[in-house]
Amino acid sequence: MKFGDILRQKREERRMTQADLAERLGISRQNVCNYETGYKTPPLRVVVAAADVFRCSTDEMIGREIS
What CA–CA distance (Å, rounded) separates 20 from 1? Predict the structure, then answer.
C-alpha cells in the first residue's frame, strides 16, 4: 500500500474528516486530499506527525514491510 492509501484508511477507521486530520497535522485539508490521492508526496515531518496521530511507526505509515 502507498502512503495515501494508508493515510485514508487510518483516518476513516478513526472516523476523522480530512479537515480534522489536517488540523491535527497542522496542514491544509487540500494537502490531506493531495496526499491521499497521491497527487503530492508528503514531507517527512507530515509522515512523522501522521504516525504520532495514529500511534504507529513511520514504517507502517509508508507501507514498509520488514521481513
Answer: 23
How is residue 22 written as a grid cell?
489536517
- Measured between alpha carbons, how far is residue 60 from residues 2, 19, 20, 28 in Å? 10, 22, 21, 23
CA 25 to each of CA 32, 49, 65, 66, 67: distance values in angstroms, whole numbers, following the listed order: 9, 6, 24, 26, 30
Identify the structural domains of the chain with CATH numbers, from first to last: 3-56 (1.10.260.40)
pLDDT tens for each residue of 1-60: 899 999 999 999 999 999 999 999 999 999 999 999 999 999 999 999 999 999 999 999
Predicted TM-score of the model (pTM)? 0.91
